[in-house]
Amino acid sequence: MPAAIRRRSTTRLDRRPPATAPPVRGVRRALLVVERASKEALFDCRMCGQCILHSTGLSCPMRCPKNLRNGPCGGVLQDGRCEVLPDRPCVWVRAWEGSRRLPLWRDHLLHIQKPVDWRLQETSSWENLLTRRDAYAPPGWAAYEGRARP
Ligand code: SF4
């Protein structure tokens, strides 16, 4: 996407929480509906608006009851089940297994993910990717990332 268009679309974004923002209309609405329908069916997506499925072996990290996006907690049971929801496998065990099967992005599992921007909840991650709305990180994180990834 050309930088000028990206800049314009990013500055025009409504950054209000979805609950208080006006309804999404037109193409944006269509994108949201298609994304929700397809990804909820395929990945049990929770519409966090900042998708990292390609980094997690196509296992949605937001299904973790602790919303962990950087690997499992210390409570994974020995057979790979979740300590909070023991009737389910740990999403991070599934992430590891899934990442080994991916032809691409295997090593992205090792990427450290920035904190979740909860303002994007219930918005389209596709739109947020195109507009770079999902690129926001708190200042402290940006400083950390600059140090961690020279
Ligand atoms: S990471 Fe976010 S957008 Fe991607 S599948 Fe999970 S909840 Fe949905």
Task: Describe this structure as you would to a colleague.
- The chain is mostly helical and about 150 residues long.
- The protein has two domains: about 1-50 and about 120-150, no CATH class; about 55-110, no CATH class.
- About 35% of the residues lie in helices and about 0% in strands.
- It is built from five helices and no strands.
- It has helices spanning about 5-10, 25-45, 90-100, 125-130, 140-150.
- The longest helix is centred in the first third of the chain and has 18 residues, at about 25-45.
- It is globular.
- The model has no long low-confidence stretch (mean pLDDT about 85).
Principal-axes geometry comes out as: globular
- Tell me the strand percentage band: under 5%
Secondary-structure element order, as H and E?
Answer: HHHHH
Bound small-molecule species: iron/sulfur cluster
Q: Topology of this protein?
A:
Layout: H1 3-11, H2 26-43, H3 91-101, H4 125-131, H5 139-148
Bound molecules: iron/sulfur cluster.
Summary tags:
150 residues, mainly alpha, binds iron/sulfur cluster
Structure summary:
The chain has five helices and no strands. It has helices spanning 3-11, 26-43, 91-101, 125-131, 139-148.
